[in-house]
Amino acid sequence: MPAILQRRPWLLAAAVAATFCLSACSGFSDRTRGALAAITPYKVEVVQGNFVSKEQVEALKPGMSRQQVREILGTSLLTDVFHKDRWDYVFTIKRQGVDPQERRLTVFFKGELLDRFEGDSMPSEEEFVATLDTRKKSGKVPPLEASEEELKKFAPKEDSSKKAEATAAAPNLPPLPAAYPPLEAAR
């Protein structure tokens, strides 16, 4: 036995444990692999660029100034030094459990006025928000109103003898005043 293992028995124990762990890895069944695949690390949501909606694209009209386009779409993600009359709007989103999305819109100017625009078909704001919701939806919607029969289950049961006892047990207190005196003394 090597001298280092004689001096440090915990090192020998660690080496044996590592050997057993490595040999056990090859014996995973499909069930075990499935269970391990279900345990995934958290992946950060990555959103880049400007989301441009269908409503924003419909608001664009040829002849608009650069400032008007910027007010509708926001500042472009890409501005090219060599193509000063072109603005590129790129939007990407990568989320766990959802297919990555990428959309592009390019706006072209002639001088200071909007000439044309082209790009992917954009979703409406409502459609886009619906794609962000990754919760599983059940097919059944529970009833939100109770029937008369269900309400009767929760109605308080009136017992005239208990009502009489409650009123008799309560001391006769004077009625409360109609108005309360001011909090601060008048000076």
TrEMBL record:
The keyword Hydrolase is assigned to this record: no
All copies of domain Outer membrane protein assembly factor BamE, residue ranges: 49-118
Pfam families: BamE
Stretches with biased composition (Basic and acidic residues): 149-165
One term of GO molecular function: protein-macromolecule adaptor activity
Any single GO BP term: protein insertion into membrane
Annotated region described as Disordered, given as residue ranges: 133-187
Keywords in alphabetical order: Cell outer membrane, Membrane, Signal
Location (main, coarse): membrane
Subcellular location field: Cell outer membrane
Signal peptide start and end residues: 1-24
Cellular component, GO, one term: Bam protein complex
InterPro entries per record: BamE (IPR026592), BamE-like (IPR037873), BamE_dom (IPR007450)
PANTHER family: OUTER MEMBRANE PROTEIN ASSEMBLY FACTOR BAME
Subunit and partners: Part of the Bam complex.
Family named by the database record: Belongs to the BamE family.
Role of this protein: Part of the outer membrane protein assembly complex, which is involved in assembly and insertion of beta-barrel proteins into the outer membrane.
Protein's UniProt name: Outer membrane protein assembly factor BamE
Organism: Variovorax paradoxus
Gene: bamE
